[in-house]
Amino acid sequence: TDGGRSQWHFVYPTEKAGRETLRRMIVYRGQPRRTVAQQLAGIFREASSPTVDVRTALDRAFDVEAVTTKFFTTYRDVFAKVMGLVRGLPDDEERKRFCQVLFNRLMFIYFLQRKGWLTFNGSQEYLEELWKEAQREKDDNFYAKRLDLLFFTVLNNERSAEYERNRAIYEALVGRVPFLN
Length: 181
Description:
The protein has 181 residues and is mainly α. The chain has helices at 34-47, 54-61, 64-85, 92-115, 126-136, 142-154, 161-174; strands spanning 7-16, 19-28. It has a two-stranded antiparallel ribbon. The longest helix is centred in the middle third of the chain and has 24 residues, at 92-115. It is globular, with a radius of gyration of 21 Å. The mean pLDDT is 86.
């Protein structure tokens, strides 16, 4: 762990392709832990079986391939669903490009959120809070009202006099966000 115990590293020494390596899972205070909790619970569950030894259970728990496969399967399914919901673009290829860029930007926003650089209504669960606020206000177009403003005005706008005049409006719609260009 670090000095403040804000993150825990579960480290597992293993050998892969004739090379000794260290695999690890990291748990951050205040961040979701579902995947790590499932992996660690799997060690206990599998090692409790008379047919699986602890080493095999550890190998499986620290194998990222299963998690990666699940992520990309879910990503593909969500991507297809979003492609079907996008309106205003004339053909599948344009919708696909739009969705790819949108998903990349959302992953970047999630990365910034995990770093603690974004807040909305005082919460660092930025995207979730942004969405909840849009639902409370019954926004008819979350992308146009919030995400477009976030991507093209707030993240990509130096803090000019004009920006400062509109700061309260921006923060009401997308929260506290640093200029990143």
